[in-house]
Every structure is written in structure tokens, then in C-alpha cells.
Amino acid sequence: MRKILNMILRRVKEAESNRPRVPEPAVGRDKAQGPPYLTRDLDNNLKIIFDIAGRNPDLIVRHMEINLPGEARRCALLFLDEMVDSELMGSMIIEPVLKELPQVIKSRRAYTSLVDVIEKNVLTIPGVRQFASVSEIIGEVLRGNSALLLDKENKALICANRAYEVRSVEEPTLETVVRGPKEGFTESLSTNMALLRRKIAGPNLRFDQLWIGKYSQTRVAVTYIYGIADRGLVEEVKKRVSRISIDGVLDSGYIEQLIEDAPYSLFPTVGNTEKPDVVAARLLEGKVAVLVDGSPVALTVPRLFYETIQTPEDYYSRPYNSSVLRIIRLFFFISTVVLPGFYVAVVNYHPELIPRRLIITMAGDREGVPLPLVLEVVVFGIIFEGLREAGVRMPRAVGSAITIVGALLIGQATVDAGLVTSSTVIVTAFVGIAGFITPGLTDIFIIIRFFLVFLSGVLGISGLIMGILVLYAHMCSLRSFGVPYMAPIAPLNFSQLKDVYIRAPLWHLTTRPSFIAKENRRRMKEGLKPEPPEKGNNSSRK
Amino acid sequence: MTGIKIIPVVLIGLALLFLSGCWSNLELENRAFVSALGIDKSGDKLRVTAQLLVPSLLGGGQNRAMGTDPNKKNPVFIVETEARTLSEAVDLLSKESGRRLFFPFLQIIVVGEDLARYSILPVTEWVQRDRELRLKTLLGVAVGEAGEVIKAPGAGLERVPGYFLGSSTETANNFCSRVVEGNFLKFIKDLSSRSRDPVALRLATAEVSDQKQARISGSAVFDGYRLAGWLNDRETRGYLWITGDIQRGIISATLPHGESIAFEIRGSDTEIKTGFVDGEPVVDINIVMKSAVNEVHNPVVSLASPRDLDRLEPLVERQVAGEVHAALEKARRLNTDIFGFGEIIHRQHPAEWRRIAGYWDEIFPLLPVQVQVKATIRRTGQIGSPVRPGKPE
Fold first, then answer.
1. pLDDT digits (tens, 9 = 90+) for A410-461
2. Is the pLDDT of residue A290 over 70?
3. Distance between CA atoms of residues A249 and A27, nearest Å
4. Which of A446, A447, A421 is nearest to A436 (CA)?
5. What angle do CA A111, A112, A113 make, to 5 degrees?
6. Are residues B56 and B101 in the same domain?
7. Mean pLDDT over all residues of chain A?
8. A contacts of B105 (beta carbons < 8 Å)
9. How near does any CA of chain B get to the CA of A184, in Å?
10. Residue that finishes a domain, picked among B196, B231, B266
11. Is some CB atom of chain B closer than 8 A to the CB atom of A439?
12. Residue-number span of the structural domain to which B52 is assigned
């Protein structure tokens, strides 16, 4: 499989390399373009900048004149339309510069640099920095800050008054919870970082910022907790992320696909979530998160298989129900993958395994159904996936119509017309619903399902078991950032199973998973089990 | 370079999967489910009568909705074939039914009286050797022709006649204790035992609600492969008392003044001891049972104190002993050791058994058997003594 894919990829690459090269367009960061630093001439500076950034209608220059003693100093404010807070700009930049500055200059006889005076004595906006590099100034302006350029000065002041339309913090659509925090990440990296800061206020939360994307210049933050996350892991994540050289990063999915360990595997080895509390929990386990500007989905690594059957709610509610639910999730995960194959194998090869009353009903249903059972399962599975896809893509307004048509017509009418057996409909429906219980793997189920149905149709139960063995062996061979994918089940680490199939009581989970956090493993004081006051060694009464 | 090699290998692998065919893959609609099978002797050939299910008359979903009243039409299809061997006859059945026969859901094999009296070897041989047959399948002997039993359309509360026989046997085993276990596993185990003779179900047809229906009544006693005779319901229960296979059931007895009283069996334990008196074997049967009063036909009987209940115990004991003696009597007359007394002597006195084993056929009809029944009555149902009329008569 991998070899074939590789071969196709190589062919494509060869074909591409034969194509004549198109000269790459000029880019702001290119060192060859123009002088690297500002000159002391405002017009010249503006020309340099416009040469690089282009004369775009959204790049606005506000020309001003400052009445200094003996001269009217020209200056220019450079900013992007609709990317800045213009009210803030008026009251905290333009007004001070035009009104305060002449008085300040008047009041003091001598000053070394006008730029210094403006930064330190005049501007009332919080974030101000001096820049001399043209490329950096352009970068800041394009990111939504304003640049104040003065004539006869070779430095510009960058004022942080960035403000643009952001989606507010909402409940994520995919990972919904009944109990626990309901906020989700937004498309703004700054908001997301703030959301994380609110969960982990200690000084050890670190964001290592990187810029990825030749054209998109996307901000990417490698997030970890200093002192918990393994240094090697953090370095590896940063190495893999900074290796990326791409024209644009539009979503964290780009990063995910370029840093994962097993790009050919069906199984994802990079986790993702839209919930700050989930990221915080994983960071506290010693994992590393990657936040990407413009994407509400954070990546977390390493990602292990058992995360599939975990939900944040497992930890927020008491352990009994969580443990039962985890086992149910595992059962549904296995059934959604195996059941169609098992159904085909049993009905076509081993009908004696089915209870007598059921098999008679099923045999009665099969009379007059045109397709062989394997095709019936495959065709109906495809129809179900198609309906599901239509449900995701279609406009909200027609949603209920499609649901009714899908459920009633496809389900009921086909059975009534004798095109499909009702047991196949039940199996397909069950499998479809069961697949939603583990949202992390939903997108790979269809392939595995059909693989197993195909094997079962050809070899019966033995084929099914062969298929499962191949899958399981493959899962055991995977690694995610150095951690075995099936840990702690394979390799088996018995003491770590307390948080896999079941969720042990919180006071029992005193250490971080040993396969993720290598050094700093203690997460909780030993012996926090609540006990009656007279028995406890130092109760609250003391 | 590797890619050139890989593609043919993958293609060959795929071709292998498709071209090798699908071994033993058979769609459900190409199978014929056999619910009951009758085997008769017809000259020197065997005649097989098969009761096949018609799934379209039984299935759920669209078939039920199509308007055929399921009770009007018989949901089974009867086929008959004749051949020298059983497997050949079964082979021919596929031709007659147009589908491959499927046996795992077969409930009962009925053997005709003629064949049973001759030998049922072909049946046990085929059942044991064939891969699809289950030893849990019941074995019955028809009074007369097995074909008649298979063809009888009545099915009780079930829809398939064969399945009625299966559920009837199972229910009678558990709640009424008047029917032997009757499956091939038990039959073959007893058959291969050194002294024990096997027992099968006895089947007859009767008119039940305007339909001919097969029903189980009593049991068939075998002497090796040959049918030796029958046990009726009472004797069958006696047989079950001795083998310790009694589950639940009702015993009717007579009160001192001639009225009837019913007891429910609530568990029993049978212990068989053997010994030798003057070199001759003797057998002691000890039955300990618990029971409850279920119905009293005399209003003056008092059930108020445990002593009252103690006084009723001999009534049960006498009734049970009578059933046991009836079974013993019949077995002696047929000279078949269906209870396995020989086996017990062999186990308890191996040395003496070696001496008498050769004469067991002569010893068994005259074997002295002592029957002791100890019954305890603990419960009287929801009320104690029967309600007496308050008005003086």
C-alpha cells in the first residue's frame, strides 16, 4: 500500500519537476528587496514600504504635521483598514502626537531623539515598540498594528491597536459536554492563549511562538508546561513544526498532517480538541499542544489510542458512571468496526450461531432480496455514509427534510419494497450511530468496516479474525512522538491501566501517566481520600 | 523499482481472494432449514420424510405485511425420498427441495416403529458422523409410521410442528416431569454403556383442535439398537424418580376418606445402594423429596400445624413408590436395565460384578429392589387449611 502510494507520489513529483519553473513572486521578507532599514527621509521610507507591500487599497497612510518649534515635522501613520481600533488610534495616538507633543517639546529645551520622546512622554497607548527594520515594520502593519513614521527619523513606532472582528467564545459543536466547562477555542490565537492562561495561571505555562507559512505568516504557538513536559518532546515538536516550509497554513490540520508519525496509517497519531479544558488537562499530563492562529482546533501530542474512549466529563463526574461509560464506549467502538463483518460472516458461513427464531425471521426477509448479503451491507453502508455527508454539508434549513427522507424512505421503504433486509438496515443504523460515540476516529471507520466486510464475505469468520489481527498488529506498531500508540495496553503497564478502561477515583490518580511524563510524575498528594474527621490525621477541624 | 514488483504481487493477492471462491459461503435464501425428520423402513430401503421451513411464510417484515394470514397456511413443506442409506436419502432431499439442507436447527428425528424394532443403527450412525447435526437433537419413536408424525400439521402454540415437539419436551422435562430427556447425546451414552439400556421419546398423533397433531406420550425402551417396548406416562415418571431426573410436577393422591389431594414436587434426591445377600445382588432405592400441598378436596382437612402436614407425608410416599414400582415392573417384563442398576453394581462392587456380568440378563428380571421414599411437606401455598363454610350444614 505504502509502496504503491510512494510510487505514485514519485511519478507526480517527476512530472512536476519537468515543468518550466515560474519565477516566484516578491515577498515582504525577501532580503534582496530594497534596503533593509529605514532611511531618514519619510517619502523615501513610504516608497520603500509601498514597493514591498504593494499599493493596496486597505493599506492606509494618514499624513500629519506636528508643529514643532521652528518647523512643521511631517509624519505618517500606516495601518490596515478595518484591522485597527480607529477610536483608540484617534484618542491615544493621533491626539497626543498632534496636541501634546508640541507642548512637551516646548517645555523641555533639549532632547536626543524625537522618537524616544514620543514613545516615552506622549503616546498613551499601552503597547509601543521601536523598529528600524523595514521587513519587521511591514510585518507588524500587516498583522494589524499601526506604524508611526516620522520625517528625519530612521525609526518607526509600532503601536499595538490591533482590533478585528473575532468570533466570540462559544460552545464547540463537536465535543459537547453536560457537566464541565462549555467554552471552546475561537479562530484567534490570542483569545485561545488567554483561555488557556485562565485555566493554568502559574508561570510555568509556556507558549513558544513560531511563524509558519511563507505567504500566510501564520502564528503557531507550541504550548507546554515547563517542568512537566519532557524537554525532548518539546524540542521534537518544535523541530517538526519549524521544519514546515509551506506557502500557507489555513488550519491546524495542515500542521497535523505535516508533523504526524505515521502519515500512511489510517489511525491519526496527533490529537485535536476544541476545548481549552481538554488542552489544559493534557498539558498537565505532560503532553504538548500546538495552537494555530485562525484555527479553533488545538493539536495535542503524543496522541494515544485510549484517548478515543475518554471524554473530559469522565473526570468531572464521579468515577462509577465514568468507568461504565468508558467500557460502553469501547464496546461500541469495537462493534462499529466489527459488526458488519461479523454479520456477513455469521449469516453466510455460520448461520447455526444465530438463535433459531431469529434466523427464521432473517431467512424470511432474505427471500426475494436481489443483492447478495455482502453487497447489501456494502451498498447500504455507502448509502448511510452518503446521507451522513449530505447531513453535514446541506444548509440548515433543509436539514429536517433530508433527515425524514433519509430515515423514512431509505430505511422503511427499501425494506417494504424488499430491496434490503431489515436486519441489514438495523446493523447499518446501529453501526452508524455507534460510530459517533468515539468522534476522534469517526473518519476512519468506513474504510476499516469495508475492509472487514470484504474479508468476512470471502473467508467467513476466519477472514474477520485475520482482518482484526492485521489491524491490531498495525495499531501496536504505531508510535506517536516516541510513545507506543497502544500504551499502556501494549506494551502492558498494569499500574497505568487505572485510567484506561476504567477511571479510578481521583484521589487514586496521584501520578501522571509514566509513558508521557518522564520526570515530574507526582500530580497529587498521596492519601487525599476523603475520610471521617476523627480518623483522618489532620482534619479540617484542627 | 520495487513498485514494479509490488503491483503484480498485490494483484495476485487480490485475484487469489476472488478466484478461490468462497468456501462454504451460502446465502441464507439458498438454505433449507429442516425442523423435523422422520425415518421409516420401507422394504429394504429407508424412507425419509423431512419437514422443511418455508421462511417466506414465517419471516417478519414485509412478508407478514403482504396479507397472507400465517395461521391459514402451513409454514412447512414436506418432502419424502427413499434410498438404501440415510445419507443418500438426505442427499436426494436437496434435489426435491431445490435448496441445500441445513440441519443445525433440526429439533427432532422420529423413527418409525418398524425400523425401530428392526434397528436404529443407521440413524445414530448418521447423526454422529454428520458435521452439521447436533447431539442435542431429540430422538423419538413413532407408534406406527414416522412419516405420519412428521406430516401432522398441528403445531400447538408454535407455528412449526417440529418446534412444537421440541418445546413440548423441554417444558415437560422442567415443569411436569413426565418426559425423558430424549436427546441423542443421552441415548448414545446409554447405548454404549455396559449394562444400561437407552430410552427415547414415544410419539403418537392425536386430533387436537380439528387438526392432526403429533404429541409426546411416554417413552420408548430400547434393547441395544432395537425397540423393546413402551413406557406410559406413569411408568416414565417412575423411571425419572429412579434416575433422579425429576424436576417439578404435581402428584395426585387420595385422602383417607377417598377425596383427592395434590402435591407439588419441590426437589428430590435419589440414592441407589447395591449390595449382595448370599452372593445375590440386591438394590435399595432411597428417594428423599420435598413437596408442598397444592390442592385439597376435603374442607375438614386441617393444615394448621406441622404435625398435620407430617400426617399427609405417607400419602405422597405411597404414590411415588407406586410410580417407581410400575416402572420397575415394566422394565423387568421387557428385560431392559434402563435404570443402569448393572452399572451401579459395577461401580460399587467391581469384583462381584465381574462374576455376575455374564448372567445380568437373567438376573435383572428377578433382581430384588427395595424402594424407600421419604417425603417432607413444608408449604401449603397461599392459605393454610381449606376454608370451611361458616353456615352450619
1. 778 888 888 888 899 999 989 988 988 888 888 889 899 999 998 898 888 9
2. yes
3. 16
4. A446
5. 105
6. yes
7. 87
8. 352, 356, 359
9. 46
10. B231
11. no
12. 3-231
